[in-house]
Amino acid sequence: MSGPMSDNAYRPVRLPAKPGAPASMTAAARDELEHHLHCQCGCTLDVYTCRTTDFTCPVSPAMHADVVRLVDGGYTGPEITAAFRKTYGERVLMAPVREGFNWAAYITPFVALGAGATFAGFLMTRWRRAGIAHEAAGPPHATDASTPVDATAEELDRLNAAIRDDEG
User: Fold this and answer.
1) ∠ CA(28), CA(13), CA(53), 5° rounding?
2) pLDDT along the chain (168 residues), means of 10
3) CB within 8 A of 35, min separation 6: which ones?
C-alpha cells in the first residue's frame, strides 16, 4: 500500500447466490480473474498480487473474499467483473474496456507512431533530393573559364599567387 487509504476504498460487492449453482470456476481461474481487477487500496497492483505480496493491505483480502463469494455463488467471470465495475466504476479494471472512447487509448499510440514515421520518411526523402540537386549543381561559387570576371589583370594575378601559396 502506498500512502494513506481512503475510508471508502473498499466497498462490498455482493450478489445473491444463484440457487443450486455450483462454483463457476477453479481456484486457478479465480486467481486469473483477480489479475484483471485493480486493488482499491491506492497501490498499482491487481487484487491477486496485492493480497499475496502486501500483507498490510486491508482491501485486497476483502475484495478477494467478494470474488470467492461470487464464484461460490455460481457467477461467471464476466458477471463478476460487471458487478465490480458497477460498484467501483471502470477504475477497478487493470485495463480499460475496448469500447467507446476507450478505443482512443488503444489506437492513438499507433496512429501517432505511424504519423511520425511518415513525417520522418517525408523529411528524409526531401533532404536526400535536396542533397542530390546540390551535388548536381556543383560547388556554390564555381565559374566557367569563359565567364567574364569583373577584376583587373593585377587583381587576378594577386589572386592566382595567393592560391598557389595556399596549395604549396
Assistant:
1) 45
2) 64 93 94 96 94 94 96 96 94 83 80 95 90 70 65 89 81
3) 46, 47, 48, 49, 94
Q: What pLDDT is attached to residue 95?
A: 85
The amino acid sitting at 73 is G
Give the model's pLDDT for residue 99.
72
Could you tell me the residue ranges of all domains in the chain? 27-101
| DSSP string across the chain | --SPPPTTS------PPPTTPPPSS-HHHHHHHHTTBB-TTSSSSBHHHHHHH-TT-SHHHHHHHHHHHHHHTT--HHHHHHHHHHHH-GGGBSS--SSGGGHHHHHHHHHHHHHHHHHHHHHHHHHHHHHHHHHHH-STT---TTS-----HHHHHHHHHHHHHHH-
Q: How far apart are the first and last CA of the chain?
A: 77
Residue 129: predicted pLDDT? 86
Q: What is the fold of 27-101?
A: Helicase, Ruva Protein; domain 3 (1.10.8)
The set of cell numbers assigned to 125 is 526523402
Q: Which one, of 117, 114, 97, lies nearest residue 38 by Cα?
A: 97
